[in-house]
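Page 37, continued from 36.
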């Protein structure tokens, strides 16, 4: 089931299950293989599934990219 999009019913069940949200903010669902699942309110975009190692790598990669951009902006001569 890797990389397979879940059914609408499954996605809604996962999204609405409070056990899949740490402090109501961080999505953590080992059953969900998506890297960027939708947020509780889908109009607000996507979030990161912190139970998926690929999601964490994508998050760290994006963080490193923005840190590098910030570094170059602040150290511009």
């Amino acid at each position: 089931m890797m990389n397979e999009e879940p059914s609408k019913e499954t996605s809604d069940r996962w999204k609405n299950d409070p056990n899949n949200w740490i402090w109501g903010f961080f999505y953590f669902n080992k059953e969900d293989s998506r890297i960027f699942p939708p947020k509780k309110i889908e109009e607000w975009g996507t979030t990161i599934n912190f139970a998926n190692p690929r999601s964490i790598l994508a998050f760290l990669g994006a963080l490193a990219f923005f840190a590098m951009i910030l570094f170059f902006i602040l150290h511009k001569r």
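Residues 8-74 form one domain. Flag for discussion at group meeting. The chain has a mean pLDDT of 89.
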